[in-house]
Amino acid sequence: MKVTVRPRARHSHVTVAALAGILIAGSAHGEEVASAIPAGGAAATQLSVRPDCVDGKCSFRLSAPQLLALAEKLVREKKYDEARPLVAALSAAPGMSLPYNFLDGLIALEDGDAKAAAARFRAILKDNPEQTRVRLELARALMMQGKFGGADYHLRLAQNDEDLPEDIARMIGNARSVIRSKRRFRFGFDFGFAPDSNINSATAAETVDVNFGPLRVPVSLDEDSRARSGLGVTASIYAGLRLPAADNVSIVADLNADTVKYEESEFDDYSVQLAVGPELKLSGSTNLRLQAVSLFRWYGGEVAARQFGSKLTVQHDLDRTRRIAFQIDGRRTESELNSGYTGWQLGANATYEQVLGKSAIISASVLARRDFMDFDPYSSKTLGVTAGIGAELPYGINAGLSGGVTYMAYDEPQLFFSEKSRSDWRFQARANAGLRQLRIAGFSPSVEYQFLKGDSNYTLYETERHRFEFKLARYF
User: Fold this and answer.
1) Alpha carbon 233 to chain centroid, angstroms
2) Rounded to two decimals, what is the model's pTM?
């Protein structure tokens, strides 16, 4: 490879940058954060090339490794104008795609073009999600854009690199704490369509047995009482606000809204939930949050649920890769669809999360709930477990897989159906994949599949549901 340059000071040895990096958080407005790149971690590369100089211009013939070494040296010395043509030349060199994207991303960061830098780093992680140093620089680029949620996600994955020195891992943890304290607002929304095998969550059975005096009589179900398929138009919004109130205290508000609209309006489903309250930072690794909660859900144009209550959440980081959380939730529920569903609901759950490898997060939860309804046959006890994994895969795919099982036991029988109390088992599974790197007018595409199955000793409540959702999402 031939490179032409004007004579300058004699070149010295080149040391290839180590894969470790240190990020120190900047301001809440996304200003540039400092980055220190320690030397070492690879053998030094030496340039011993004699130039051919004619009329004040010198031509060098460099191998691809020599070109890379020189480009790295110039970038390390912050001689970006001189490095640009060499880095550009790397793009045409075989096997140099990764270092080209990395060095070009670093130069873009120094030019203040964080968006272009992030694109370069994502291009590397698309096929090499284990590159910790690249993930750290991507976090820096996202922070410069004010995208603190994405930055925190990548820093958390980077922390799981066992080769990180303890002091660097600790500084990354400090950076994440600053990100969480500086992140004032988050917002995102999506829309799409969802083919669904059971839009009314009903049984597929044609008849159910009911008690008619001393006899049990089969009764036929009409179409509205049986499972119906359909295509829904979906949309959802989430937003979060964090306002500092005092030292180690913030007021946190979370809003979630979901809609599914079908051609048959009697199955339209809308819900909105708002949670507001203080969050107290008990220590560097423990937070406590107490929020008032309200939820409204409309089904078929009527109020299916109106809830008011509160929830207490405690979250603790066991170490840089493991986290646990506990939550207690108490609510008053009212329903205009069926007055029997009016009453109190008390719940508790515990969650464990761990970063796995350098690009995945696993989680597991245990939940318990007690429903005290005005109609005793609707009062119940619930126990359940869920587990899942989310990961960054090659080709820029973000994917997740989860599943769970829940058991519900009701207090009293519905004598119209049986003299035995109702008991249900519910099974669920979910798989999703998205391309966060692909943008369509700023939106990223994703697809999700859900499977739900309900087994019950009451035929009316035996259900099975398959649902796909294709959507475009925008994150801020």
Assistant:
1) 23
2) 0.70
C-alpha–C-alpha distance, residues 78 and 82, integer Å: 9
What are the φ and ψ backbone dihedral angles of 400, each rounded to 5 degrees?
-145, 155
For 157-180, give the DSSP string: HHTT-TTS-HHHHHHHHHHHHHHH
- The sheet with strand 57-61 has its strands ordered as 2-5, 57-61, 52-54
Give the residue-averaged pLDDT of 324-340. 94
> What are 328's strand-pairing partners?
312, 348
Rank 45-49, 152-156, 204-208 by mean pLDDT and report only the highest.
204-208
CATH fold for the domain made of 2-182: 1.25.40
Query: Residue 458 and residue 413: Cα distance in Å, rounded?
Result: 10
- 205-215: pLDDT as tens digits: 989 888 877 78
Distance CA 282, CA 300 (A): 44
> Which residues of the chain does CATH 1.25.40.10 include?
2-182
Cβ-proximal residues to 125 (8 Å cutoff; 6+ apart), any chain: 131, 134, 135, 138, 359, 392, 396
Question: Any bridge partners for residue 4, and if so which?
Answer: 59
pLDDT at 445: 92
CATH number for region 186-475 = 2.40.160
Q: Which residue from 254, 350, 263, 269 is spatially nearest to 302, judged by alpha carbons?
A: 269
pLDDT digits (tens, 9 = 90+) for 254-267: 999 999 999 888 89
CB-based burial label for 99 (10 Å; 0-12, 13-18, 19+): buried
| Alpha-carbon radius of gyration of the chain | 29
Query: What's the angle, vertex CA 315, arms to CA 185 and CA 348, rounded to 5?
Result: 105
Q: Render 381-393 in DSSP notation, one character per residue.
A: EEEEEEEEEEEEE
The secondary structure of residue 73, as a DSSP letter, is H
pLDDT given for residue 211 in this prediction: 83
Nearest Cα residue to 234 out of 270, 186, 197: 270
Neighbouring-strand partners of residue 327: 313, 349
What are the residue ranges of CATH 2.40.160 in the chain? 186-475
Asked if 250 and 240 count as a contact pair (C-beta separation under 8 A), the reply is no
